[in-house]
Specification:
By secondary structure, this protein is an alpha+beta fold. The chain folds into 2 domains: 98 residues, Pseudouridine synthase I, catalytic domain, N-terminal subdomain (Alpha-Beta Plaits, 2-Layer Sandwich); 111 residues, Alpha-Beta Plaits. The protein is 23% helix and 31% strand. Strands 1, 2, 3, 4, 5, 8, 9 and 10 form an 8-stranded mixed beta sheet that branches. It has a two-stranded antiparallel ribbon with strand order 6-7. Helix 4 crosses helix 5. The chain is elongated. The N and C termini lie far apart (53 Å). The model has no long low-confidence stretch (mean pLDDT 93).
């Protein structure tokens, strides 16, 4: 009988930290795997006393939650890490922010004092900029979309092509226009609150739905940014701070 592999001794986790970071500029094109590699290198460079799992292949105790799709920017991405020494949250934030490349910016760090954090991420606010399209054109497409009770879209997933409803996840939406007085070319801006579901409805699914119901085809690729994610507001027009309960 083969001998059982011994379990390596590891320092215990004494504190859990929750981080909010942004993905900006050209870094929006980085994949989730790219970010994982960059973040684990940043942990080493910043000297964060990260906790590791036991066994022959120990890995850092890092939990990634609901990452934004590749190609989208975000102001509200979240990570939880375990550390072996109690840390000052602002020092961790500053050290990691310095160690990460510009465009991956650590905005907030709090001590995790509650459980079920992922359950608080009920919805996201997405902003979609349409360079070259007027408010009127995008508003017509949005009105047609909101008038539907169901809009089925397709997406290729790991398990193959899947069809699902993009309309049910959209809780609230509006269209604005960039102020022409600011010297900016014509550009409509769609802000949409999307409830997290299974499968997750992403901004590209909403764009696919607008194309289906109103033949909306932007002349240039839209610029997409997640502005926030967290508990859905009672009126459905926004989301709360998912770190609020940990701030005490």
């Amino acid at each position: 009988m083969a001998r059982q592999a011994p379990v390596r001794d590891v320092a215990p986790t004494v504190q859990r930290l929750r981080l909010r970071y942004a993905k900006r500029g050209r870094l929006r094109f980085s994949s989730h795997r790219d970010f994982q590699r960059a973040f684990e290198r940043a942990l080493r460079r910043a000297g964060v006393p990260i906790a590791f799992s036991a066994g022959f292949s120990p890995h850092p105790k890092v939990s990634y939650t609901n990452a934004a799709p590749t190609g989208t920017a975000s102001e509200a991405e979240y990570i939880e890490i375990g550390v072996t020494v109690a840390c000052d949250t602002e020092r961790v934030r500053a050290a990691l922010d310095e160690a990460l490349p510009p465009g991956l910016d650590v905005l907030d760090v709090v001590v995790a004092s509650t459980s079920d954090f992922a359950a608080r991420l009920e919805a996201s606010i997405w902003q979609v900029e349409f360079p070259g399209l007027s408010l009127h054109v995008v508003q017509q497409a949005l009105d047609a979309f909101l008038a539907e009770s169901e809009v089925l879209v397709e997406r290729l997933m790991k398990q193959g092509k899947r069809t699902f409803d993009a309309r049910a996840a959209v809780v609230w939406a509006r269209v604005e226009e960039v102020d022409a007085a600011a010297g900016v070319a014509e550009c409509a801006i769609l802000t949409v609150v999307v409830r997290h579901s299974t499968p997750a409805v992403r901004p590209d699914d909403v764009l696919a739905a607008l194309r289906l119901v109103a033949d909306l085809v932007p002349p240039t690729p839209p610029r997409v940014t997640r502005l926030a994610q967290g508990p859905l507001a009672p009126d459905g027009q926004g989301v709360g701070d998912p770190l609020a309960l940990d701030r005490g």
